[in-house]
Write a structure and sequence with these properties.
Elements lengths: L17 E14 L2 E8 L2 E7 L6 H6 L5 E10 L12 E12 L16 H6 L1 H4 L3 H23 L3 E2 L17 E3 L7 E3 L5 H9 L4 E9 L11 E10 L3 H20 L9 E3 H8 L12 E3 L1 H4 L5 H4 L3 E7 L4 H13 L6 E6 L2 E3 L10 H8 L6 E7 L1 H19 L10 E5 L4 E4 L4 E4 L27 E6 L2 E8 L4 H10 L4 H15 L6 E7 H9 L29 H6 L10
Parallel strand pairs: 3-5, 6-9, 11-17
Antiparallel strand pairs: 1-2, 1-4, 2-3, 4-5, 7-8, 9-10, 10-22, 12-13, 13-16, 14-15, 14-16, 17-20, 18-19, 20-21, 21-22
Helix pairs in contact: 4-6, 4-15, 7-12, 10-12, 13-14
Keywords: Aminoacyl-tRNA synthetase, ATP-binding, Cytoplasm, Ligase, Nucleotide-binding, Protein biosynthesis
Function: Catalyzes the attachment of L-aspartate to tRNA(Asp) in a two-step reaction: L-aspartate is first activated by ATP to form Asp-AMP and then transferred to the acceptor end of tRNA(Asp).
EC number: 6.1.1.12
Length: about 575
């Protein structure tokens, strides 16, 4: 029989009606001859009562957890003494039960899935995905896709798919390579992003493009990374930076409103990269709480405390009162993030005790005035090379957030922009300059004359990152559309004219045929849904993810292939690699 409705779509208006429901048995209980079932589908759960004299009793007696069943009966209000308010106040009195399929005993209790080892959940992902938490996440994702499509279609964007097999180009991570059977010894690369193709769509005159693009990066994994992932990719022609940002703000606000009923305040605040690093020690600061750094380099320069006296930067953060055990743990985090140590002071009246207090007698009053540290509060310092000092203290700031639940006092979601990234950064390992975002990012027009000088590290990029609750959920830039500037950029990162043409010749040719000013962005779609759902890993919002070792435990991939398959593409596996 055809089901009347999904369980979660039943309303009080169905009361007194005969309904047919289909789903999985969530739980079964026998009470004094009565059988109580909970029937579940992805929309909800309902209690089913089967009475001993019912024709359905014998079939209901066969049911066990996770059996697939069809239930027909009367939908009615539960006894008044059992009501708590809402749709749980209704139940089905079964008149017919049909077993649609049986099920083995599951390897873990679905209701206790959160406490089950992740590898077990991933091995039996088809069972894990039955859990309401997982279904809510994937439904949220589906609604977000629908909201994106609705908004961008309304704004005149054209959805275009770009190739999955393409040329290997340097984009910051290792490529996944695919050997070509028809061209022995040659390889495709799976795309790390559709960057060049979307720029060529602008050259082709499509003006506004978007795609939910599958991308691939062979890099070390963590909670917010997967080897194959989805990004919402967009590009716009005849725009300046403000045009791109305002469009993204409208889109993000629309997605939150349509999927979660949350109104994000727009426009989003903007912060320059250097300010973000100097104040929060991160280019993706969590701004749900206000805990800024204070620069005190000048207070210690040339002083008696040698660790601070010659430091390029001395940064301090005012924390609540901390125990020595908590300080030791924060120091471990600072060292893990590049600091030589974590100096500390505890405010006592108009001065300080503990830690480095004997070195700060002369600076005590100024430290209190600048930091606003409260009585009993703790000052935490990092010092040394600027980037290491701010980065380590940024990690300490996040640890303090978690220790004292500081973000709880702020908004549930805080979205901001970080802008004016450096165009180039120096790679100490190679001794050369490299790009911070990618080599197609346009420099600030006022800084063009710095290319090729000893000040090219000061060039500002027209780049921007979209930050949500301390996660970078999007990144983009205004692109280089002038072939001469693109050549300057390639030269700055050490590409000879021949190397640039070998890697990007097709794109350099395209730039010569009337390229409009353009810019765009890509959202890390998995990461966005992770933050929206409150999950702690993107694996919780992807239907069939890899684990933290890049392995699909359900399908057992990666896996060996037959020797004949390797021979077809002219490959063999060296014995030392097995």
């Amino acid at each position: 029989m055809k089901r009347t409705a999904m369980i979660g779509h039943l309303t009080p208006a169905h009361a007194g009606q005969t309904v047919t429901l289909q789903g999985w048995v969530n739980r079964r209980r026998d009470l004094g001859g009565l059988i109580f079932l909970e029937l579940r589908d992805r929309s909800g759960l309902v209690q089913v009562q089967v009475e001993p004299d019912s024709a359905a009793f014998a079939d209901a007696d066969r049911l066990r957890a996770e059996y697939v069943a069809e239930i027909e009966g009367t939908y009615q209000a539960r006894p008044e003494s059992q009501r708590k308010g809402g749709l749980a106040d209704y139940e089905v009195i079964a008149t017919r039960v049909k077993v649609l399929n049986t099920a083995k005993t599951t390897p873990f209790e679905l209701e206790k899935g959160d406490s089950v080892a992740e590898d077990i959940r991933l091995k039996f992902r088809y069972l894990d995905l039955r859990r309401p938490e997982m279904q809510r996440n994937l439904v949220l994702r589906s609604k977000a896709v629908a909201a994106v499509t609705e908004y961008l279609d309304r704004e005149g964007f054209v959805q275009v798919e770009t190739p999955m097999l393409t040329k290997s180009t340097p984009e910051g991570a290792r490529d996944f390579l695919v050997p070509s059977r028809q061209n022995p010894g040659e390889f495709y690369a799976l795309p790390q992003s559709p960057q060049l193709f979307k720029q060529m769509l602008m050259i082709a005159g499509y003006d506004r493009y978007y795609q939910l693009a599958r991308c691939f990066r062979d890099e070390d994994l963590r909670a917010d990374r997967q080897p194959d992932f989805t990004q919402l990719d967009m590009e716009m022609s005849f725009v300046e930076l403000d045009d791109v940002l305002s469009t993204q703000e409208g889109l993000m606000a629309h997605v939150f409103r349509e999927t979660m009923g949350v109104d994000l305040p727009v426009p989003f605040p903007r912060m320059a990269y250097m300010d973000a690093m100097n104040l929060y020690g991160s280019d993706k600061p969590d701004l749900r709480f206000d805990l800024k750094f204070t620069d005190v380099t000048d207070l210690f320069q040339g002083g008696e405390f040698k660790a601070f006296a010659t430091a390029q930067a001395v940064k301090v953060i005012a924390a609540p009162e901390l125990t020595r055990k908590q300080i030791d743990e924060l120091e471990r985090i600072a060292k893990q993030n590049g600091a030589g140590g974590l100096a500390w002071l505890k405010r006592d009246g108009d001065g300080f005790t503990g830690g480095i207090s004997k070195f700060v007698t002369a600076q005590a009053a100024e430290l209190i005035a600048r930091t606003g540290v409260e009585q009993g509060g703790t000052l935490l310092f990092t010092a040394g090379e600027w980037k290491k000092a701010v980065g380590a203290l940024g990690a300490v700031r996040l640890a303090l957030r978690d220790l004292f639940d500081l973000a709880a006092a702020g908004p549930q979601f805080h979205v901001s922009w970080v802008t004016e990234f450096p165009q180039l950064e120096f790679d100490d390992d190679s001794g050369t300059w490299t790009y911070m975002h990618h080599p197609f990012t346009a420099p600030h027009p006022d800084d063009l004359n710095l290319f090729g000088t000893d000040r090219q590290g000061e060039i500002r990029a027209q780049a921007y990152d979209l930050v949500l609750n301390g996660f970078e959920v999007g990144g983009g830039s205004i692109r280089i559309h002038d072939p001469a500037v693109q050549a300057q950029m390639f030269q700055a990162i050490g590409f000879s004219a021949e190397q640039a043409r070998e890697k990007f010749g097709f794109f350099m040719d395209a730039l010569e045929y009337g390229t409009p000013p353009h810019g765009g962005i890509a959202w890390g779609f998995d990461r966005l849904i992770m933050v929206m759902s409150g999950a702690t890993s993107i694996r919780e919002v992807i239907a069939f993810p890899k684990n933290n070792r890049g392995v699909d435990l359900m399908a057992l991939a990666p896996s060996p292939v037959e020797p004949g398959q390797l021979a077809d593409v002219g490959l063999s596996v060296a014995a030392s690699d097995i």
